[in-house]
Amino acid sequence: MTAPQPKAEGSLPFLPYGRQSIEDDDIAAVSAALRGDYLTTGPLIARFEQALCEAVKAQNAVVCSNGTAALYMAAKALGIGPGSTVIVPSITFLATASAPHLAGAEIVFADVDPDSGLMRPSDLENALARVGGKADAVFNVHLNGQCGAVETIAQIARQHSMKILDDASHAIGTRYRLGGDEKCVGENALSDMTIFSFHPVKTVTMGEGGAVTTNDPQWAEALTLQRSHGMTRDPALFETEEDAFDGPGVPNPWYYELTEPGFNWRATDIQCALGLSQLAKLTRFAARRRALAAAYDSLLAPLAPVLLPVAHTHCLPTLHLYPVLIDFAALGISRAEIMAKLGAEGIGSQVHYYPVHRQRYYAARYGRTELPGADRYYARALSLPFYAAMTISDVARVVETLKRVFGL
Ligand SMILES: *Cc1c(COP(=O)(O)O)cnc(C)c1O
User: Fold this and answer.
1) Do both 264 and 301 map to the same domain?
2) Is residue 17 situated within a structural domain?
3) Are strands 307-309 and 322-326 parallel, antiparallel or unpaired?
4) Which of 70, 110, 367, 374 has fewest C-beta within 10 Å?
5) Residue 66 resides in a domain
């Protein structure tokens, strides 16, 4: 997902649409893990999980190899399988739909607000209406790091006895108001589970990595089983007693039991060392992203209405991406041409996302659903360079280049 990085133009460095911010102490933390006794299944796993719980005020966290694995494990732990129906907004990365689909579910794509890219309550209701009001879960997406009408979406989901999973791959560090309180994304005040991705373009990275948070200890146990082959070493869960125990209450030391075949989705101690070091910087990274977003918002204001920032919602976001909505028709220039011209000036850009309901696999499986909000968001979206190591003068350079490319 990270754009290839062409050579710098002249003396100006290339600014990708997103990238990791790795500092010397991150490197030292990884080196220390490499010198330690455990490269995997060691003490840094639980330490990372504890740190994530503290960062997002969750009660349980299960770290794993990537965000896609987190989505799959969550789907399985929520009981999603053959015969299940899961609603997913169409503007997201493929994995939000493909993970529950691989667990056995059929996917119903929901439309989104054309100006924010977020699923609205009416979009959820329309998606539900297409399946006779019956679905097992909604996998909501906090696109770009914003959350939408989460309270109303939760009400609708509860009325229909649906589980709620938040795909917060973009939204670590985001908060929203609920009643008189401020809640963290990942705290699961309204949802059953939240997943995070720690891919290098995300706000906090482990190289590759993911996690699921939940406040239900039984789901946490199910997630832990999913992470490692569906096997348990917990004597309390053993059922094949004659093989499991040497005598009453004395489990055989070599013994483990298979509950259901599973994959290996574990994260290593090396990944968790990087994750711990990065997570400690979340507050600083979030503040930096807010400052960069504020600079973009004000410098881009004169380009309205041809170019508009994505609509702001009422949450307190830690943005992962900085997308703008561009009226390419009014400019008389295609998005591909703009991306090529920006690239030639050392400015990376990307499109998040080609609507998943239009992807050939899902279009062939479900037919071409009409989701005009998703289509309209997609038609205009372009993500500009945005990452913690950027400076305000980098932002100014992006905006000046945009003006030049647009001839404005
Ligand atoms: C990055 C991302 C994922 C997948 O995470 P990986 O760690 O790359 O597997 C899922 N959903 C969304 C919205 C993402 O941005």
Assistant:
1) no
2) no
3) antiparallel
4) 367
5) yes
